[in-house]
């Protein structure tokens, strides 16, 4: 991996009695804690990259030192190459407790030559079941690609290399729960999910190929501190008011038409008591 030069910028703006800040961070030594896996998680390139490994004894993972209410999180990942069946590379933000909130990217491995599945989910107050899954339009094991999550008071958007692939809007006026009260941390891990990850668990992890390794770099967080109603309310922080413009909507529809392989809103057999409220609202709109 080539070493990337990261510039760290901090802007602080006082808005009445509240404060927002934009932080572009680039040193894993300062920004994250290794929370499991011991030496299977290695910080490389003077803090500019992390390698997570998985073998039959253990996976590995890290989490951000700071937590935040709303933000835009980006990271470059190069996923496990070769026969990655059964492995799960996760990258998400989450709060704690029984009524936790969580916004998930999970990358489900596959047999050599077969595509990864990008598994996304939004969990609010401990309730998930909002999965959408995608294929990618490139091989994510050859080069680094940027995966981003925007989370602001209006919407959650999942991006791949700047292209939106999914949007989950704040529809609390329609009694759809939305994560807006609990601060979250960034988490990432590489773990064995062969009971479900590849073809519903039919394809198991081939431990003769271990260790499996995924690489991360260019960790960037634009985060908000203070009131969720006034943070960046003057428009000085673009991400706090960010949505999908007409050009982005065309790209979103292109991805969902050509690369989406599962949508919980199109699975009435699974949800026999009725689809989620947001699915019905989106179908009407």
TrEMBL record:
Contains at least one intrachain disulfide bond essential for its enzymatic activity. InterPro entries: Beta-glucanase-like, Beta-glucanase/XTH, ConA-like_dom_sf, GH16_AS, XET_C, XTH. Signal peptide: none annotated. Keywords: Apoplast, Cell wall, Cell wall biogenesis/degradation, Disulfide bond, Glycoprotein, Glycosidase, Hydrolase, Membrane, Secreted, Signal, Transferase, Transmembrane, Transmembrane helix. Residues 11-216 form the GH16 domain. It comes from the Eukaryota. It is found in: Secreted, Cell wall; Secreted, Extracellular space, Apoplast. It is an enzyme of class 2 (transferase). The chain crosses the membrane at residues 6-25. Its EC number is 2.4.1.207. Catalyzes xyloglucan endohydrolysis (XEH) and/or endotransglycosylation (XET). Cleaves and religates xyloglucan polymers, an essential constituent of the primary cell wall, and thereby participates in cell wall construction of growing tissues. Belongs to the glycosyl hydrolase 16 family. This is Xyloglucan endotransglucosylase/hydrolase. It comes from Camelina sativa (False flax). The lineage of its organism: Eukaryota, Viridiplantae, Streptophyta, Embryophyta, Tracheophyta. The gene is LOC104761841.
